[in-house]
Amino acid sequence: MLARATSLFVFMLFSLPLLAAASAIARQGPQCNTGTLQCCNSVQQASNPVVGILAGILGIVLGPITGQVGLTCTPLTIVGGGGNSCTAQPVCCTGNSFVSGAIVVGCTPINLNL
């Protein structure tokens, strides 16, 4: 009886790490559940003076916005699909897009090569 319990314990001891590793490897693509996936030429802090100047020229009031904004962005609809790739900075943006993606607020850089 003790041999059977020991065998089960040893089996579980070696099996569980393999299952955990397999589930970690099976992750597919970037996570952007709360916003839109964008490809931006640049990602800057909202407090950056250049961002403030660009926003002013475009008539956008950034005022209380903190965090990062994407500049010159286009939407990404298919991750890993042909014809829709991002050679600049892929980001997940949770805020508004102004002037056809000239400024997109609430952006977080992501890695598309997962």
Can you give me a brief rundown of this structure?
This protein has 114 residues and is α+β, with helices and mostly antiparallel strands. The chain has 2 helices and 6 strands. It has a 6-stranded antiparallel β-sheet with strand order 4-5-2-1-3-6, with no helix packed on it.
List the helices and strands and how they pair.
Elements: H1 2-25, E1 36-45, H2 49-58, E2 68-75, E3 89-93, E4 97-98, E5 103-105, E6 107-109
Antiparallel strand pairs: 1-2, 1-3, 2-5, 3-6, 4-5
What gyration radius follows from the Cα positions, in whole Å? Answer: 22 Å
Strand order within the widest beta sheet? 4-5-2-1-3-6
Q: Helix segment count?
A: 2
Report the span from N to C terminus: 46 Å
Mean pLDDT: 74
Report the helical percentage.
25-40%
Structural class: alpha+beta
The largest pleated sheet is described as: 6 strands, antiparallel
Order of H and E elements: HEHEEEEE
Total DSSP E strands: 6
Percentage of residues in DSSP E strands: 25-35%
Stretches where pLDDT is under 50 for at least 5 consecutive residues are 4-28
Tell me, what's the shape? globular
Fold and architecture overview:
This protein has helices at 2-25, 49-58, and strands at residues 36-45, 68-75, 89-93, 97-98, 103-105, 107-109. The protein is α+β, with helices and mostly antiparallel strands. 30% of the residues lie in helices and 27% in strands. The longest helix is centred in the N-terminal third of the chain and has 24 residues, at 2-25.
